[in-house]
Amino acid sequence: MSLKYFTHGRRDQMKVALTFDDGPNPPRTDQVIEILNNRGARGTFFVLGKWVDRFPQAFMRIVESQHCIGNHSYLHQTHLGDFDRAEAAIGNLLGRPTEFLRAHYFNFFTCLYSPVALAPGMKIIDADVNPADYAKSDPQAIVEATLGHPNLAGGSIIDLHDGRETDDDALRLASPLPMIEALHDIIDGLRAKGFELVGLDEMEFVDPIEWRPDGRGTFASSAARAAIERLGRQST
Q1: pLDDT at 216
Q2: CA–CA distance, 178 with 229 (Å, rounded to integer)
């Protein structure tokens, strides 16, 4: 069993992908869409199945704006790989399978028992630019962490957040506000560097990374731990 993921696209193309995790989160996701649309940029939204079920109209506004959709689990629980449940919620509205999946918390072992995650046509996506916007309250700090990131280059995948996994509505609505305020300057700054802002479906991915067991699987289920151990034996 081999589990591979991508952190970037082709480095010889001046394309970068803005990706947004943990939505749909109305009206915050709508604000992100408006900024992207007004600037002629495409984004990729890694959505949570529970929010797709709760906010189907918000999800469809992403789709109708022709942004890219990815699977980011159903509940966003640390050791639960419920990508198949999420895919049912997403596909019911999208009308087709998703092509991209991002493991929540980048815990890739959660993909091991998901037929959706391991399907031949699925691309598991990490990111090489992580400004940790969810942990910052200063929009300028998010701008600087993105535009000044040492990995930023052609093919970069930038990880931002338009939502949160929490059921605390107030926190979920407040958390993306600094990122939204920063987004104008991020887009303008990326373009000033010569980058084209594209969806993941406009990228050609290279240099896949083969996942190796790590400490993040320590508290996984017994079945998942057994699979992690098998992968570990195969990689030695």
Answers
A1: 63
A2: 41
